[in-house]
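Structure (tokenized):
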């Protein structure tokens, strides 16, 4: 027999097991009462359903199934308690099958197909590539987080099933995704009302007050936008940026998607104290 076939209610002799630790045990039909082994009991407050192995202490208002009981009696996890029960009843515990590398593998080409994006765009514009784990050669899509100067701060690994993992040692090194686009934005610039704007200076964020945030919320509400956390929305962050730069919101609405998201990330980081 292996664990895939185990029915604890048929396998475990609940009466024998509970009698071995419950003092003054009394059995009537499929029901047992006795002194609770988890506290100084004198009122037979411990009750067991011998059909299901479920127990309950009415004095402490605690209970559970037989696995919980073994875990609590021995001060171990339910996982270890289950293993102990299997060992006591000579049930073979199969080794956990490790997922095959092919099942977890995921590539830039797969992502491009799913999102209907050109592979060249992901590679040349987003700097995304494929790489492999050293241990099992699992392919993953490498998503780099580049600083404004273009150097790599760290990267994320994407596997199949939308499983993401940061590179080992990434703590404290994570920058905003898309930060490398800021320099490009400054160089290309935007034409607005006869002016060439090549740089967005957000130092004015430090001068904002709660009143500015309240006003941004009002504008958001008047526009029909409802959000539980408005500070994380693009529209709210553009309104805040407009207030910080003393510029019309229309300027920010013409930003290209990547530039708008880079700006949003900077404002969000400022509001949540990450800058």
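Design, position by position:
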């Amino acid at each position: 027999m292996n664990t895939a076939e185990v029915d604890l209610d048929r396998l475990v002799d609940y009466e024998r097991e509970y009698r071995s630790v419950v003092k003054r045990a009394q059995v009537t039909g499929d029901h047992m009462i006795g002194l609770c082994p988890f506290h100084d009991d004198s009122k037979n407050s411990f009750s067991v359903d011998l059909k299901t192995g479920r127990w309950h202490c009415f004095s402490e208002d605690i209970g559970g199934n037989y696995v919980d009981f073994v875990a609590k009696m021995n001060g171990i996890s339910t996982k270890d308690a289950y293993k102990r029960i299997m060992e006591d009843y000579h049930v073979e515990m199969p080794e956990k099958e490790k997922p095959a590398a092919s099942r977890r593998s995921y590539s830039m080409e797969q992502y491009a197909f799913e999102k209907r994006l050109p592979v060249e765009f992901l590679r040349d514009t987003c700097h995304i590539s494929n790489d492999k784990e050293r241990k099992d050669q699992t392919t993953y899509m490498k998503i780099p987080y580049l600083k404004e100067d273009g150097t790599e701060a760290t990267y994320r690994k994407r596997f199949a099933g939308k499983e993401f993992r940061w590179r080992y040692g990434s703590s404290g090194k994570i920058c905003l995704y898309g930060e490398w686009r800021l320099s490009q934005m400054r160089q290309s610039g935007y034409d607005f009302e006869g002016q060439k704007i090549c740089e967005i200076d957000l130092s004015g964020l430090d001068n904002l007050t709660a009143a500015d945030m309240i006003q941004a919320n009002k504008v958001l509400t008047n526009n029909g936008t409802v959000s539980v956390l408005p500070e994380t929305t693009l529209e709210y962050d553009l309104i805040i940026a407009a207030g910080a730069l003393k510029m019309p919101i229309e300027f920010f609405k013409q930003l290209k998607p990547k530039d708008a998201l880079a700006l949003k990330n900077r404002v969000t980081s400022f509001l949540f104290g990450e800058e």
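Reviewer-requested clarification: The mean pLDDT is 84. The chain is about 35% helix and 15% strand.
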